[in-house]
Amino acid sequence: TDDSSATNSRTRPATASARVVTSLTCADATSPGGFVACKLRLEEPSGYKVVLNSSSCIAHGNVFRITEPLAQTLTDDGCYEAAGTEIQAAGPFPAGTEIAAEVIAPLLANPPALRVSGSYPVWTLNYEDGADTDFDDLVMTVTAMPVTP
User: Fold this and answer.
1) In degrees, to the nearest 5, what angle opens at C-alpha 48 toward C-alphas 78 and 32?
2) Residue whose C-alpha is closest to residue 58's, from 76, 77, 75, 73
3) Domains of the chain by range and CATH?
4) In 46-97, which ranges are E strands?
5) 12-21 as b/e, with b when 16 or more CB fall inside 10 Å?
6) pLDDT per residue over 67-126, tens digit each?
7) In what helix (H) or strand (E) does residue 98 lie, and over which residues does it extend?
8) Residues 6 or more apart from 48 whose CB is under 8 A from it?
9) Radius of gyration (Cα) for the chain, nearest Å?
10) What is the DSSP letter of 15?
């Protein structure tokens, strides 16, 4: 406000500069409602694919990547990636191979989380970026693709 009682304001989008890495978590059978770090296990010789089903977020720079058994990036900007985007690894990888994944994203108000539901051969990954707690910011499916002998 100035001497004439005029006011002015300016808005600019806020960009989080700190980045945080979030790995897979699965329901903890020993602690109802709890989650523990986990990996997705291929039960038979298989390849796999990862599909981005949907996104409901506005932050730029949500990177989703597979870190094991191969390093692969599904998206560098998950909130703005088209639904249906996918990566595949034909393998075959031996039975017992574990798939690890992570999201690297801006640090927001709350800690982010990447939760797994389902079991071999199809898992659903729900990512919460920390802006709210709806767990629908990125929704992906990992599907094992068994190799027929």
Assistant:
1) 75
2) 77
3) 19-146 (2.60.120.400)
4) 46-55, 63-68, 72-75, 86-93
5) eeeebeeeee
6) 999 999 999 999 899 999 999 999 899 999 999 999 998 888 888 899 999 999 999 999
7) strand 98-106
8) 42, 88, 89, 91, 93, 99, 142, 143, 144, 145
9) 19
10) -
Q: Taking all residues of the chain, what is their mean pLDDT, rounded to a whole number?
A: 87
φ and ψ at residue 79, rounded to 5 degrees: -65, -20
**Identity of residue 48:** Y
Say what the pLDDT of residue 73 is: 94
Closest C-alpha among 107, 123, 98, 143 to residue 27: 123
What pTM, to 2 d.p., does this model score?
0.83
